[in-house]
Structure formats: structure tokens, C-alpha cells
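Issue 218. Parser rejects a valid record. Input:
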Amino acid sequence: MSEHIDHIIHEITPLSDKDCFYIADRRKSEFTYPLHSHSEFEINYLENAEGVRRIVGDSVEIIGKYDLTLIAGEELEHVWEQHQCTSKNIREITIQFSKELFFGNLIYKNQFSSIRQMFSNAQKGINFPMETIMKVYPMLDNLSVEKSGFYAVIRLLTIIYELSLCDNYRTLASSSFAHIEDNTDSRRVRRVYEYINQHYREEIRLEDLAGIVGMTPVALSRFFKLRTGKTVSDHIIDIRLGNATRLLVDTTNSIGEICYDCGFNNLSNFNRIFKKRKGCSPKEFRENYRKTKMII
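Output the parser choked on:
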């Protein structure tokens, strides 16, 4: 029986029903806030924060001088922690807004299609490239000093729209860790996804998947890569790793138990793949996550 570990703070944000958004524009020298989640969507901008470790779900990365992230996953744990950052002049702009700001009929209008797609992807967390940061920085820089509440909302909407036009942002957490279904318009790919999600603990053969969708193994391999951008075997590994990292975070199960429970056939193979994809061993990932959660 697994023992659940529950040290993640569920943040109550200072956003009232009467407000469109909340913004905090801070100068700081250290990061002390623990791993947390909240129902509001969040844009977080950092400058002069080289060496900070950003954790979003099962994504763990050391950031450079600038970082801009959007999080729209209701229960997606995230934190920026000090790690190797020595800067004493960090600027952090945090904007939080309720999804209700968009999710009447507005989000379904044609003019909001790019924003709708971005929010869908941001359930896993999104990180933006430098050219996008440069594009929105002038608006971010002045948002907290805008005197008119109305124009501040217009400026926020413009920032969100400009972010949605970026065509090379990166998603951070894995789908299975964030409990997000991979969206696809292909019936065949959906059926492959469904089968893998149900059977990732077992051996999955390409021939079986091909038979489910009425294709040859070679044809399925090509079709899947064309539609999803990755191979079938890479997708299976992603699903297994996402579930493994969730178990590392949420249970006290041994690493060996988690390895076999998620469909990996031996421990050394699991450790090797995990380290290659995540940059650390399963043991290090668990220890770091637990340490981060305990800082309150």
C-alpha cells in the first residue's frame, strides 16, 4: 500500500471576484516560496535570475538570466528555487488571473483561437524564448504602474495575445504527470494514445498497436511520427516516465517498485533512461522534490 506524501501548498491567491487580475512586481535577492499550485492561471517573468531552478510538474531546469513561463494547470505544482543563483537584484513579475476572465463565450470566438490553443498547452506549463520575452517586455515592465484598471486589463490581454503568437514555445511537464490528455485530431493516433495509456504497465508491441488501427507496423511508425513529431517508442517512454515521476512525488514506493509498476523491464534501464531525460537519477529527483516541498 503506497503512502501519500502531501506537502505541496495549495496557494490561496489574493485575487477577489471583483478583480480581473493580480500583479506583484518585486525586486528580491532570494527565493523562499515552496512548491505550490493554484487554480488561477499565472504568468511569471524573471530577470537577473541566472542559476535559479525552475520546477514545473516533472520538468526541472536551471534558468538563464531571463525566464518567462505561463502556467494554466489547475493542480500543476511549480516553484522557482534559489539553487545556484547569487544575484542580489532579481526582478520577478507575477501575474495571476482567473480562467473565468476568458471562459465565457469569449475564448471560443475566432479571434481568440491562438489564445485558446496556448492555454490548452499551458496546462503542462509553457516556457517562452528570448525573442518573445523581448517583444512583450515593454508591456510587462509598465503593467504594475498603469493607473487605469481598464487599460491595465487591455494591456494584459495584449500581452497574452502576443504570447499566443509565439510558434516555438516549449511545454514543460509531461502529459501523464499533469494528467492532461494529448489532443489530436487524428482518430488513429487517439486510439494509439488510449491503448498506451491503459497498457503502459505491460509490454507494448508495435505490431499490436498497428493491428488496433488497421495499419502495418511500418506505416503506423511513419504516420505517428508525422502526426505527433515523435516515435511510438518515445511516446511510450514519455508516458511511463510521467507516471513514474508522479509516483516518485506522491508515494513512498521504492524506486524498484515504481520502475516495474510503470512498465520498465529492469532497474538499470529505468535509471539510465530517467537520467538521460530528466538530467538526474530517480533518487535525486525524489529527494530534490521532497526537499522543495518541505520548505514552508
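Fixed in the parser; the record now loads. The radius of gyration is 20 Å.
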